Amino acid sequence: MLADETGRRYAVAFVGSDVTERRRREELSHLQASTDPLTGVANRRVVFEVLQEHLAAARGRGCGLLFCDVDRFKQVNDEHGHAAGDQLLVALAGRLGELAGPGDVVARLGGDEFVLLSPGSDQDSLTSLAERLDACMRAPVQTSAGALALRVSVGSALGRPGRTPTT
């Protein structure tokens, strides 16, 4: 508050600071810490955070997980080069993203391992999701080495409230 010599207030003074750039850097830092740089999907850290939430004993509703591993991935890299291998991984991430429903999380655990986490799933819905995944993997992927088959081994697990993410 600004006042004249009699003490009568006549203005309010504010000091401001533009934090736009700082906020942008913070958002970018968070994005980099939670996203796989090659595929753009969530990373392992995010999977465990989401699992923690959905497996919480008091408030979790459980979840289903599809674990996906690219078959003969080392052979693809050895025969066609790492660029073609990377293109397969990006395609797999994209196809998983197309299958994912609202609230589902697609993440790269590392290497050629991915997970599709589906909150509130039961065995029937998880089986149906795995069947749809199998069907969408049949189309070849166009890479710098030409069209390559994308073969994926899929496993599933159901997590119930009260379980730990590692279990």
Automatic annotation (TrEMBL):
Listed EC numbers: 2.7.7.65
SUPFAM superfamilies named in the record: Nucleotide cyclase
EC class (word): transferase
Keywords: Nucleotidyltransferase, Transferase
Ranges where the GGDEF domain occurs: 61-167
Residues that span the membrane, as ranges: none
Keyword set includes Transferase: yes
Protein name per Swiss-Prot or TrEMBL: GGDEF domain-containing protein
